[in-house]
Amino acid sequence: MPFPRSKKVHDVESLYEYAIGALGRRMRTVAELKRLLRQKQIAGDGEVVIDAVIGRLKDQRYLNDNQYAATYAALRRDGSKHGRQRVITDLKIKGVHGDVIAKNVTDAYEGVDEEQQAREYLRKKRINQPSVAKRGDEAAMKKSQKETARVFRTLVRAGFRTGTVIKVLKKWDVEDEVLTELEGEVSG
Which of 18, 39, 94, 168 would suit a FRET pair with 7, their CA atoms being 20 to 30 Å apart? Predict the structure, then answer.
């Protein structure tokens, strides 16, 4: 049974207090906070009240998409070991402007060896090298191809470029035919 919705009608001050509490629980982008505030019942013109609250939070430096993007990119690079493209996609979903994303992600990933980052991601996720099969053993070859495809797709989802994923897999002695097929899957 769902909880009943609050019937409280917010004015500028109470909405501001609610927004401060929401930012105290976790960092948010302007778009995320606006979405959250729009769910509340607001006295008067809702958009004007929300814009006033957002403006006040920006003036007090509690809300800053530029700082959010920089922090988010650094945390995903160092903590989750995600690739550049995954961070870009996540920030777009969170409503950060494209120019802010481009600048902050470029700064965060400057000097990062993407191949090494991909290897660290695999180590962190405990993903092992696909088994190597001998020619003629069809069952083992099929299993090896499945394992390779799983590793390939995992790295692509984690935000690594196809070229980087191919380099990692080539160092694991994966057959060129399998790599070509997987590369075609992504670009096709």
Answer: 94
